[in-house]
Amino acid sequence: xxxxxxxxxxxTLFGSTGASTFLSKATTIAAVVFMLxxxxxxxxxxxxxxxxxxxxxxxxxxxxxxxxVSTTKKAEEQPSETK
Length: 83
Fold this sequence. Notes:
The protein is mainly α.
């Protein structure tokens, strides 16, 4: 079966099962460290009390004073009637 996939003389399906290389060991260690940090961060974030940077109950909003609206036009703005 291994010869069908290019196994050659080793008679194994996916290559030799000898000593692993430095790169494969480093990849395994990196994967384990990554998974441990993922689980640690998930645990820490799920067990935190909710905190807020807002210390007061609500923000205070100032409103501008109302300006009275005039309904009459000034004399200079009215059209002049010429006959």
